[in-house]
Amino acid sequence: MKTLRLGLTLLWTLTLAACAGSSGSDPSPSPTPAPARFSYVLNSSDDSVSVFSIALDGSLAPLEVASVGGYAKSLLMDQNQEHLYVVNASDDTISQFQIGSDGKLQSLGIVATEEFPQSVQISPDGRFVYSLNLRSESITQYSKGSDGRLTALATTPHTAGPLSMLFSSQGQYAYVVNILDASISQYAVASNGALTPLVPDRVTSQGCPSGPITSHKTSQGEFIYVLSCSTDEVEVFAIGSDGTLQSRQVMTTESSPQGMTISGDHLYVANAFSSTVSVYETQTSGTLALKSTVAAGTSPETVTVDAAGKSAYVLDYIENQILQYHLGTDGSMTRTSAAPFSTGMTPVQMLLKR
C-alpha cells in the first residue's frame, strides 16, 4: 500500500510529493482555449518526463521520454507554454527545457537551487520563478530570460519548511504552504519580485497542509484551497483586501487526498487511499459543495483537466498509468472506453499544452 509522502527528508517527517496548483478562474467570460495537443507526465521513481500527443478524442500517444535529475519532485510550465521546468530534489537543481512545436523537449541545461527543493512557481507576469527549498529553509528567486533560462537573483530565508507557493491573481501577494508548523506564510510581492512578509506573517491551518494549493475567483472575491492528506480535508481561505488570509471552510475529503485542480466552477480532488476523485462545486462565497465521487484506479495521485477538449486525466501512482474521463458540461467525470495509458514509474504530476 502506498505510504503517505508527508515529508521526504531525513531530518523531518516525510513530505508529500507536491503538485503544482492550477490557476483560479476569472468570473468574467473569456474565449474558450483550444484543446490540449500535448501532455507531460513527471515520473518520480525513474526521474523522467513522459511526453504524449493528444488526439481530438483526448486519447494519448507516447512521443518521447526525457531524462531529468535525481528524485524529480514537480513540474512547472510558463504561461506561454514555451518552457518546462523540473525540480530535482536530491540534486538540488532545476532542469530547464524548451518545448518544441512538435511537443518534444530540448534541454536548456540545469540551474542550481539551495538544498532539497520541493517545487517551483512562476509569477503571474512571467518574469520571475521561485524555488521552495525545504532542507535549507529558503525561497530562491530567479529571473526568467527570453530563452527560458533562469538566473538566480536573491534568496529569502523561510524557516517554517516551505513546500509549495501560490500567487494571487494579480501577483501582488504570495502564499507558501509550510510543513513544520501547519501554516501558510503570507508575502507582499514588490515590482522586482522581492518578498516581504505581511502582518501577520503566517496563518495557521486547521489541518496539516501538505503541499497542493490552488486558487479561484468569484464575484465575491478570491479564494485559495489547501489540501491536507494526513487529516483528509481541504481548507478554503479568502484573500482579504490587505492580502491576509481568513479561513472560510474546512471540507472533509475521502482518504489521503494527494492532488487537486480547479476547472471552471469545479474543484477535483484525487483521494489515494479511497481510489476515488471527489468533484466539488465552488460557490460564489468560495466554499465547496460535494457534487459526486468517481472511482479512479488503485491510487489516484492527481487530476488534470482539459475543459476545451472535454477530457480529464487521473494519474494512478501505483499502477503507473493514466485514466481518461469524459468531462461533462456540468463538471461531471465519466470514464471513457480507452484503455489506461502507460507512464514511467510512479507518476506524480501531469501538465497539458495547447
TrEMBL record:
Species: Bdellovibrio bacteriovorus str. Tiberius
Protein name, as recorded: Lactonase
UniProt xrefs under PROSITE patterns: PROKAR_LIPOPROTEIN
Keywords: Signal
Signal peptide interval: 1-20
Segments crossing the lipid bilayer: none
Entry-linked PANTHER family: DIHYDRO-HEME D1 DEHYDROGENASE, PROTEIN NIRF
InterPro entries the record matches: Host-pathogen_enzymatic-act, Lactonase_7-beta_prop, N2O_reductase_N, WD40/YVTN_repeat-like_dom_sf
